[in-house]
Amino acid sequence: MKKLLFILLIVTASLESLVAQEAFRYPPIKYVLLTEVDTATVKEVVMQNRRRHDQKDFEVVLYNVFYHRNANLDEWQKNHMSAIDHNIGSEFLTTLSVLGDQKTGKIHWKPIKLDTIDRYKLLTVEQLGKMAYANIDRYFSDCKQLALNNNYLKALNLIPVVRRGKELMYPDNTTLTEFYRVIDAATWFVPHHDDVTISTQARVLPFEQVRDDLLAARNQKNIRPAADIYLLEDLGGTLLLEKQVNNVYHFWSYDALPYDGSSFLYRTGDFKFIPRTGIIATTYYGFIFGGEEYFTHPMFRTLSINGVPYKSQYH
């Protein structure tokens, strides 16, 4: 009898532990009411991603919430200890990417009424901004340990609520939310493991150049053992500026392997960025959700920005 009771206690404790882990991995769903406010602008980008191996198209709708430097957020920041360097003109960008269904490639929109959402489940744009700032601050406070955990920089439980036609609607699809800091200060040295900062005046580091340097380092191990590993450690998990074409900035990264409870995620991968607008195209390369890679080496193009058609070829 005692043995049976002991087994029951162990099973009960194990179940409670699993429930606690699931609560951490899958936090409660919250809805974000995306409306224009004085402190931020919201830009809708419609994209199309295409898998290379079967040429299947996926709808992607990305909402850029760009937070301006403003009195309200500045006042909130003053009352919080911060590891973020504000001397280089930090602004903040939150992206909510609605991803097409893994089987059909389509986004399914459903109507919703605000009075049917519990108050604690509804976030305003301002509340989302404070969440972004706090998460980025935690990321820098923990010395940018992206390789260990990148939960600070992403969320899978935030659902956008937007006006489509005459109705408020939300997507019944996977939505990936990511937080970024945007700076316009010139930088020469590559920041170590900084997967959150988009710097439009960063030193240009084309992928081909870094690849060639990496291969050269591998051939010089007799000079510096594991030189290629040191190079990858320096560049891993950092957003690198590939090039600028007119007002569009192309970024890429060698991503460090993150570990988190709910998914493996290498952030957005390669992306295109326009100042004051946000990210207009991205691969989501390496995003694994539900046990499989979401897009698998995709090509991507931008179809429209805020309803205005955008001429773009697949990349």
What does this structure look like?
Helix content is 22%, strand content 32%. The N and C termini lie far apart (67 Å). Helix 4 runs antiparallel to helix 5. The chain is globular and about 65 Å long. Strand 12 and strand 13 form a beta hairpin. Strands 2, 3, 4, 7, 10, 11, 18 and 19 form an 8-stranded mixed beta sheet that branches. Strands 5-9-8-1-6 form a 5-stranded mixed beta sheet. The chain has a 4-stranded antiparallel beta sheet with strand order 12-13-14-15, with no helix packed on it. The chain contains 5 helices and 19 strands. The N terminus is likely disordered. The chain has one domain. With 315 residues, the protein is of the alpha+beta class.
Helix-strand layout with pairing:
Layout: H1 2-25, E1 30-33, E2 40-51, E3 57-67, H2 71-78, E4 91-99, E5 109-111, E6 122-123, H3 125-141, E7 154-155, E8 158-164, E9 167-171, E10 175-183, E11 197-199, H4 207-218, H5 227-235, E12 240-245, E13 248-252, E14 271-274, E15 278-282, E16 288-289, E17 292-293, E18 298-305, E19 308-309
Parallel strand pairs: 1-6, 1-8, 10-11
Antiparallel strand pairs: 2-3, 2-18, 3-4, 4-10, 5-9, 7-10, 8-9, 12-13, 13-14, 14-15, 16-17, 18-19
